[in-house]
Design brief:
296 residues; 45% helix
Length: 296
């Protein structure tokens, strides 16, 4: 891993158009080599976008691998690039005054697009807003340390372990720290409801709705995507949701998935299709990624 990080450090000096093209070439190769991940991506796309011809879904999956590999290599720019360079490359768009983020408890909802680390950097670099988030420790200690340093290089970021539960997050939010939350992974049945995602029941965390209800936090979606022609990234902040979560947690969770769907359709190749989003199934339902029924 040290060699990989050293390679990423060397590559971060390259102009972004060259680095981006290297990433896309790497992703095209990985699409051929990583058969199991390619299969997951194609299954997800068949479930979520059955209206597309198979050839179009395969093309979209290849583009996703290219976008994802590019984001890994470009992470070196986020971790080691100068403040000036990143400020030039990251553009922020907002449907609201950004002072809203620090005006009371805030949940910044960041679905799993490949450039999500750019969203995190933009908050501390350009907006100069400290934040908190939950964190899953990486298996490789060297990479784990690099990841932590990269995410908090401009301002301290409070990272809480998932095992610690939600109470530390609530305390941090009440102390004025916006909570940067990734809401759309399959963590099993615990604290989840089966609500549709592109029409398929998906085990979806109810934590965003419950946390908003407990703290009175506003929910602001933030999405980072590539600019055209390798010119950097755009980070877009959307208006806070109105009347959220309301009295029905399941309905609020369904509403969240509907919003994520809308954002995915705007940049489908940049969404994280290689994750087993539908791994956990309702009781007795056959799994999509294997032959046996999945129960979480």
């Amino acid at each position: 891993m040290r060699l990989v990080l050293a390679f990423m450090w060397l590559l971060h000096w390259l102009p972004l158009p060259i680095l981006g093209r290297i990433g896309e070439a790497t992703g095209a190769l990985l699409f051929v080599l990583l058969r199991s991940r390619r299969r997951i991506a194609l299954i997800n796309l068949a479930l979520c976008m059955p209206q597309l011809p198979e050839a179009e879904r395969k093309k979209l999956a290849r583009q996703h691998f290219q976008a994802y590999a590019r984001s890994i290599l470009e992470r070196g720019v986020l971790w080691w690039g100068s403040r000036e360079r990143l400020s030039r490359l990251i553009e922020i768009e907002s449907e609201m005054p950004l002072t809203v983020l620090t005006d009371g408890p805030t949940i910044m909802l960041c679905p799993h697009f490949v450039c999500l680390d750019v969203a995190g950097v933009s908050i501390v670099l350009k907006l100069k807003i400290p934040s908190c988030s939950m964190y899953t420790r990486q298996q490789n200690k060297v990479f784990d340390e690099a990841l932590l340093k990269g995410r908090s290089r401009f301002l301290p970021v409070k990272l809480f372990a998932r095992a610690d539960g939600i109470k530390p997050v609530i305390r941090a939010m009440r102390d004025g720290l916006p909570f940067f939350m990734l809401p759309d992974m399959d963590f099993g049945r615990k604290d989840a409801e089966f609500v549709p995602f592109f029409g398929i029941p998906a085990a979806t965390l109810t934590a965003p709705a419950r946390l908003a209800g407990v703290t009175g936090a506003k929910v602001v979606v933030v999405i980072a995507t590539y600019k055209p022609n390798y010119r950097g990234w755009t980070v877009r902040f959307y208006k806070p949701w109105e009347d959220y979560p309301g009295p029905d947690i399941t309905a609020a969770t369904r509403r969240m998935n509907e919003v994520i769907e809308q954002r995915v359709l705007e940049n489908p190749s940049e969404y994280f299709w290689a994750h087993k989003r539908f791994k956990t199934r309702p009781e007795g339902e056959t799994g999509f990624y294997g032959k046996k029924p999945r129960g979480g």
